[in-house]
Amino acid sequence: MQKDLKLFNELVEYLISEEKNTPVATPIDTTALYTTLDLSLNDDPIIDEDFKKTLKAIIKSTPKTASTSFFNQLFGGRIDRATLGDLLAVMLNNSMYTYKVAGPQVGIEKIILKTICNMIDYPETADGTFAPGGSMSNYMAVLMARDKYNPTARTKGINNKMTLYTSEASHYSVAKNASFIGVGRDQVRRIKTNDKGEMLAIDLDQQIAKDIEQGLQPFFVNATAGTTVLGAFDDVKSISEVCKKHDVWLHLDGAYCGSVIFSDQYKHLVNGIEHTDSFSVNAHKMLGTPLGCSIIVAKDKRHLNQSFSNDAEYLYQTNDDEFNLGKTSLQCGRRNDALKFWTLWKSVGNNGLKTIVDHQFNLAQIARDYINSHPDYTLYSFDDSISICFNYKNISANKLCTALYEDSQLMVGYGNFKNQEFVRMVTINSLLQEKDIINFFTTIEEFTSSTDL
Ligand SMILES: *Cc1c(COP(=O)(O)O)cnc(C)c1O
Fold first, then answer.
1. Cα(49) to centroid of ligand 1, in Å?
2. Is the pTM higher than 0.90?
3. Is 196 exposed, middle or buried (0-12, 13-18, 19+ CB in 10 A)?
4. What is the pLDDT of residues 174-201, one digit of tens each?
5. How many CA atoms does the CB half-sphere of 399 hold within 13 Å?
6. CA of 155 to the centre of ligand 1 (A)
7. Where are the beta strands (DSSP E) in 238-355?
8. Which of 65, 228, 270, 337 to mutate to test the pocket of ligand 1 (most atoms within 8 A of CB)?
9. Which candidate, 431, 428, 423, places its Cα nearest to that of 447?
10. 129 touches 113 (CB < 8 A)
């Protein structure tokens, strides 16, 4: 191992220097990928020297998500204490299903879950787990709701027409999950939003009432804290009143921006969160831990047990189920995603997490101010969002983003809302500074002035 740790250090040094010197890696055309890099798998081993060379070539060409030019996705940056925790988790290589095999790592996971439950004013009955991503957290939520409102679904399958609700601006996983749970994509009602991308509670109420009238069984509403394109926050309070009225499960998908719960200044954006039945948040988005780190909590942990526990004598041989986390998780063998979040949280404290969240909103405000003070730009997104959606000089957003990528200028994507396409810049990397935001815009200006688009 010592030899490979030495190599690892050398490769990481190389990665960090590449990030600095070539923040946007030169993309390899897919048709040339296998001829440009030696990715082949052969009968004979590769010699050490070539191994190192090949790895360096791969590192060089791999997109640099921690660079100051990466605004493409709902994650980015590298927070060292979180990365340290993830590296340790790899070395420890536990599986989180039993206390016998994971020991204190179980306590680390449980304390994160308990603390989050307390922060959102869930009662003592609440608990949660870590899922392999926000899509899977949403899957666990809708599955718990299905089993609550159709308890025989677990054993006999679905036999009545159940319906679920989410806004037209919500994440696509809701539709996928509807098919996974046997309810079907056609049973998803996509509720209209206002101009800011927030779900209309009145429309939700009317649609549920209509479905009940038709003899259908509404069972689940998905609200969003941070929609994928505009970063909008659904009004949890008014939606929760509709859910209470019709007795349906309310899940809050906070994969993108649920981390506002850590900020005194921004937690009001999820006012009413204590009225939800479940809540999910990706620490690998706003909190900058390495992928993936997705948390789902349920107000009543009996639903976690009801939907996910299974007896397995070969596995559960010691300790009580409170500490055998396999009883409430989607997977069997499960990676330790908790340690990296814990090493971060332990190092910076609640105050540090608050600073991380607040800084992203500050960067977003810097970006909006820039756009608003430069007439060549049009802004499409709103305050209290870390997605900055804009167009520049009527240049097609699609064309601009692709050209910036192909020319190794910037990594940024485009999106669309109500038939308007625009560039979506995401200020989620909390290690960025004002100058990086300004540099983003000046790069676009200089690039477009010398390129025909
Ligand atoms: C990113 C995101 C998801 C999916 O999370 P993954 O970890 O990528 O699976 C779900 N919902 C919203 C609102 C998201 O932004």
1. 40
2. yes
3. middle
4. 999 999 999 999 999 999 999 999 999 9
5. 11
6. 29
7. 249-254, 278-282, 294-298
8. 228
9. 423
10. yes
